[in-house]
Amino acid sequence: MAEIGRIRVAKDKAELVKALTSADSGTGPFQTFADVIVFAAALGAKHKKRVPLGEIAKREPAPIRVEHFNSMGHDRVIKLLGCTETQNIKILSPLEEGFDVQRNEIFEEYANGGLEILQVELRGAVDYTERILLLLSYERSNREIQEEEFNLTKFLS
Question: Does the predicted TM-score (pTM) go above 0.70?
Answer without folding.
Answer: yes
